[in-house]
Structures are given as structure tokens and as C-alpha cells.
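Encode chain A's predicted structure.
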Amino acid sequence: MLHHALLPKQAGSADQRRLLRLYRGLDTESRRTLLNFAECLAQRAGGAHASDATAQPPVSEPALEERPARESVVAAIKRLRRGYPMLDSDTMLQETSALMAQHVLQGRDAASVIDELEALFAARYASLQDAAS
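Encoded structure for chain A:
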């Protein structure tokens, strides 16, 4: 559901109705993207006070498992999700799905896809750490 604090302040305004109508027409992933963007804008508009109110707790260290010699792309995604539980799997879905599709549909080598998945998870973790500090 669209967070009411992100809507224009005047209840029932044309902008509010338009935003709600647009939101309702989006799929789940697009709704999340819109909410993330709106929260980013609200945070930026609020300046230092908004960032103080939304301060993130320290990010825990990943619990990385050793990569098996022969691993499927699906198993690698599961291993990486276990190793990086602090990352939101919903936000990772598009990129991990795209890499999985390259492997399954385009025949891309599993090892190179897994290398890229590991780099993706590590980069997202680094971004999360940067945002928390």
C-alpha cells in the first residue's frame, strides 16, 4: 500500500488521486521501485533531519560459504542469499533473474554467471555498508 506520508499533503488533491491511480496500475516490483524513489526524494527534501530519523543500524558481516567446485546457478543464488541475509532479495530479484536467464535461455556458462552473481552480491553489500555509515 502507498505510504500516505509520501502523497501530496492536501487530502484528495488532484495530484494525490493521480499518484494513487498510477500506483494502482503498477506491478508489484514497479510499486516497490516507486516507493523506494519516493522515500529517497522525501529523505533528500528533509535534509539532515530525514537522514537522522532513518539512520541505519550497522550492517552485519556476510556469512559466506565456500563455493563448491561444481555448482548450479540456482544453488549459487541460494548460497549467496544465505551468505548475505542483510540484502533484500526482492531488490536483487531483477538482476539475479537477468543473469539466470542469460544462463538458461542464452546458454551462458554457469561459472561466469556465478562469478558475476558473486560480484553483484558483494557490490550490493558494499553499497549497504556505505549507506549505513
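The chain has five helices and no strands.
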